[in-house]
Amino acid sequence: MKTLCRSTVVIACLLLGVAPFSALATAPQTSYPIFGILGTDPALQGKESAPQGREAFEPIQQYKIIYMHQDAVLEAVRDAKIQYGFDTRVLVYMGGFTTNRGGATLIEQQYRHAVAMIDVATLAAAIDAKATEITASVPADGEFPILASTADVSDPKDSKQFCFWIRVDDELMKVAEADGKTGRLRVVRGFDSQAAAHKEGATILAPCYVGNRDQLDAMRHTNSWPGGPDYMRYALDPASDDAQRFKASYIIEWMKSGYDGAWLDTFEPTIFNICDPLGRKVAMAWDFRNGRRHTMESNVSALQEMVRGVRKKVKEAAGREPYIAANNVAKSYETGGKLLLASRDRPGLLDAYCFEDSYLRPSGGTRAFSPVSKDKWTQNVTNERDAARDGLRALCMIGPAGWVAAYINPSLPNYDQLVRFSWCSFLLTVTKERTTYFGMPLLITNLDGKAGFLPLAPLFFYPIGDPIDDGGIDSFTQADSGVYLRTFTNGLVVVAPPGLETAATVAIPAGYRDPKTQEEVRQLTLNGGDGVLLLKELGK
Q1: 362 alpha carbon, distance to own chain's centre
Q2: I need a surface site. Which of 64, 94, 208, 478 has the fewest CB within 10 A?
């Protein structure tokens, strides 16, 4: 582990012509906005503790938003923000339209109609309102996705103890016994609903869960179907009032304790990591209003309804407006994700929406990171540029937006290059209004033998000024080299995109200097996946 000291930050401040922390009422501000995912340096696992005192917490002012699971460290950040009057939003991470640990049990106790469902079979024969023996069609593949309950209420500590029910029309039925070969079921009727007669061929729906049995080794998945490897997790129907009340109940309590809102994980129209009762991937859940599986359009509409519904419930109960951010819009920005971001024409939606893996991806577990592919990078920076020009609060995360982010730290041999490339890529997308934010891990690490926040690199503070070029991403490309150049009022950003087969050499206009050496630079040679930021005047 690389131990960093406060002198690193002091030197950076002096280079930029600003005073170090001890002489400031507030921490120095980055040239463009930054948000952070709170984490602990993996080298300190089992030894972490929150920083102590105002001086130690000064760096959190450099982040517009800070989020992570609710734990003692996030509570300490919240308390410091309140105590010292810092203007930083502190959000609590939660599943977007999914449950987290223990949530499945609460759903079964109070919010059963919140669960998203998927059509898995049909009634083989009509039934009246009293029948407790029914027959479901058996799928041609022989895999019967209707299970017998093993408990009255799911046990968050034991995935093999679960309650299972089906839905036919508007009635829920608890499944007590299930024969996968014949399709015969013994059910409890009128289960949290009114028993009724149902016609032959009626659709049988079963709950959706979180996971994918074909990707058991995926780093950022949980596998949480009944009997699956991990604790039970339900996917939720975003248009359901029960789902909205369930989500709002958490946010209300957090806001009453001083948090500013919530960060919704994987809240995207393109369904991620959702499965049926057998762990098989689900592309779209059931649309109860239209009696079919959701389309992208109807799913976007349901997610919009969820955000507005949760926001209204929280504001009424907590007495103030919640700040609601989410990830991941990267895969669906053009096809519907953009419509979840609040704008003048779309009030009441997400305050901010994160592009996860904007510039970096894990390669080889958590021990290495590399730039994303050229196609992915181009798609991300193009969409982030679009969001910036539309004045939307796009959150451009350097890499993963969850626990894996803590591994993006100075222990990586190529850390400096990865940070340069990512920050410079972000600067290709910004506007002078600074509506978009760059995302970094906010790591607690060892500073002079004490717990402290990993200082931001000096390049985040370079006084680059406002962008001059206002074209699209393609307009910044140099045809002869494939390198991207963008001019600012006091600087120049140079990015060599991923995928260059050989190092690219590019001519630099006169008047730009290396901020470290202060020497003029007239030519640069860069490998793919790297970036350079040059300045006209260092102290301007």
Answers
A1: 16
A2: 478
